[in-house]
Amino acid sequence: MSANNYKTNHERMLELIAIINEADIAYYRDDRPIMTDREYDLILDELKGLEHDTGLILSNSPTQKVSGDILEEFTPVRHTRPMLSADKTKSIDDLVKFAAGQPVLLSWKMDGLTLVLRYENGKLHQAITRGREGIIGEDVTHTVRTFLNVPLTIPTQKSFEVRGEGVISWENFEKVNLSLGGDYTHPRNLAAGSVRKLDAGEAKKRMLEFWAFDLVSDEMESGSKLEQQHFLEHNGFSVVPYIHLDAGVDDKSVREAINSFQPKKYAYPVDGLIMEYDDISYGRSLGATGHHENRLIALKWQDELYETEFSGVELATTRTGMVSITGLFKPVNMDGAVVSRAYLHNLDIFDEFQFGVGDKIKVYKANMIIPQIAENATMSNTYSLPMECPCCGQPLSVKKTSGGTRQLFCENPRCAAKLVQKFSHFCEKTRMNIEGLSAVTLEKFIGHGWIQNFGDLYDLDLHREEIINTDGFGEKSYERLHAAIEKSRSCTLAKFIAGLGIPMVGRHAGRDLDRHFHGSWEDFEAAIQSGFDFTTLPDFGQIMNDNIYAWYADEQEAKLWRPLLSKVEFIKENHFMNRNTNNPFFGKTVVATGKLVNYTRDGIQTKLLELGAKPTNSVTKNTDYLIVGEKAGSKLTKAQQLGIPTLTEQEFENMLAE
Questions:
Q1: Which of 36, 344, 390, 498 can bridge 510 by disulfide, Cβ–Cβ 3.0-4.6 Å?
Q2: Which secondary structure element, helix H or strand E, spans residue 365, and what is its range?
């Protein structure tokens, strides 16, 4: 090899390493992939080939470490042993060769978030993600304790670790994803995000499971992998399903065992198979690289390619102003599902394909799930990418990200796509209660230009077919969303005002305005136009008064909310006031703070209204009682300073009973 050629190979390796590391950061740390699995594998294979041909392996090569990163919000934990990966292949022949002459276990390669569970004295002690390079992970014990099937207490008192995968079944994924607005495209993304939730209560709703695949212990030695699996099963762990193949089985038996795994019929997401030597001592004797252990090998399925024709792109503006690109093509039946679109991660990837309308392209489902474009056979390069924002129509610009990739951006500061939080606030349960319109779903709809003001929420039926064909949606989810929108057309003035996002004018102020103006928007608006002094209302200060007038005078705000008035019908709020004026809270000003056991925040307000009390949100010298729940903060301190009586939830109930 000439020196010049060596230098060229070296430069190419540096380039490939930089690309892979950028992709790893985007995937593992930011949960935002910038390339397809197929593209990643092709780049990694090219790097491996160069390392093999040159004999040169650089210290920061991804082939020598496990990808991943940790989030800053969690406590870092060092693993007792490095969590290495498995060598990968797409050839069944390689597994047949691997098994030759040795007993092996063949199991699913489950597609979720790899976790380590530590047990001491018969109890779950700690749960850790794989994390950075398989050396330092994140402590996620609080969320793992909420999993559906993790043993918290076990019969074995010796210390050991269990390695496994945190996953969500396809069935539960459909349920959970629907409840979250259909924002996730794959159970792996939902599982990874859920395990990393700081709020364990939120994680509990995600129906996560842990499936064990490995035992690590200095105190308990076993001769075979099969014995380890039996030990885990005996201690209550769900073990990744496996097949044991005895030594000396013929090639045909190995192939039959491999083919018996049917991923399309399996209840959980998987992205391949794992084959591992049953003899633990033999497996250890084979050693390991910095990236993978030689005792096991992973089979990733070959992607089946389908031919179709490119027909254009669809743009969508996000709340950051970045514009995503989705490639469109003639519908093609892929594994029993008709597919006509695939996400293109950035402008560089779009340009590489050199598309033209009618170009012959090949598409596939990455890991048999996510549609991707593999190649463009024609490469006519005649398609001009639209350079106008689909949401506001303003010209788009091209910017380079910190990683060096080019993205489309909308620079218009008033673009509705950048106002996602305003729309999300409006749709919240305690405001207009439009279930199914989460921030991520709204971002998609607004980015496509379907929603530009609050009134457009009530005209989404005009985009019915497009919504049904949007990722994460379908006929049933659309019908649920449509029903929620129609239900919200009848609303109280209190909820309507709370949803508008007037600074400092929330649910409590909305109720006060509802009562004062008898549920009439016309009366409320007429009061503003006549210069009404809102400080004359209880608990309304000068700042709230000024905020109402500033909001009403803002022409841009008016463009958002005024179209609503023809879409909704105001109904009178029934406060169910208790006619029994003898209860101890009748006519009293009461504040509730902290987390209550038997009441939601809205629930305690409604209960107080039923009693004829006046619920407010701030503690003042005029407050009669403060009901205190768990994690009460500054309101409790202020009440104590003012000498205001405080009640626990139980004391509140006891006073009612008396």
A1: 498
A2: strand 360-366
